[in-house]
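Hi P.,

Sorry for the delay on this. The queue was packed all week, but I finally got your sequence through. Input first:
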Amino acid sequence: MISVNKSELLKEFLEYGKLQSVKIIDTHTHMHAVGGASTPVSSEEDCVKLMDDENIESIWCSTHEDLHTSMDEVNLGTQNFMKKYPDRVKGYYVFNPNYKKLYLESLDVVLKNDNFIGVKFLPNYHNHDLDGEGYREVLDFADEHKLIVLSHTWGDKPQNSVENVKNMIGSHKDLFFIMGHSAPGNLDGAIEVAKANENVYLDICDIHRHSGIIEKMVNAVGSERVLFGTDMPWYDPNYAIGSVLFANISDAEKENIFYKNAKKLLERSKR
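Then the structure:
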């Protein structure tokens, strides 16, 4: 495989153990320990060290405690992480519709804190349809302010399926929507949505581990609509980096996925 892959970026990685000429922005991460689970890293310090080791300029993050609990001060884990590493960590404001009033009352922090880039949804975990009433106000807010929305999507699993995305995006044209995991089990449907909506992006997070996925995304929608994500700390970023480097696409397309697309997305959005 190495002998026929002409990628200069791959050669660089194999020689130095990391990319040196291209920086990386990881658009789909979490942080902190999870009860009953083991992850490659869990502390903030270990996370930043790993970023340094693998030339990751910044991560876009929602911490585990913000994803899975309701708190008197919502999204406090992510805010503290951003405050500690303001140049390295951008945040998603997790919105849990089970505590809708509480979360709507705090939503303005996304506009007040420049390190928040948008909002994060877990429809299936929180038991609410992405295109349902639970998310309506926050989607309207994101649409009005041209914010980034990252939502868990997974095949045809109810509540965050491709059909839910289609129904939602039809009435929210100005937000920038990242299909988290790109709907494994129905990638063709995710590609269809992305092709029909220029503000919809595919996300390689977790789905990258399947052979040929990176090429399929790039060939279908263009490398400019594919974002690098790892689910760190669940995966070491090298796993996803290797999936891109060994893909049969050009180095220019790889650089788009690693860095340029995320950079341009931030510029396009109001963050």
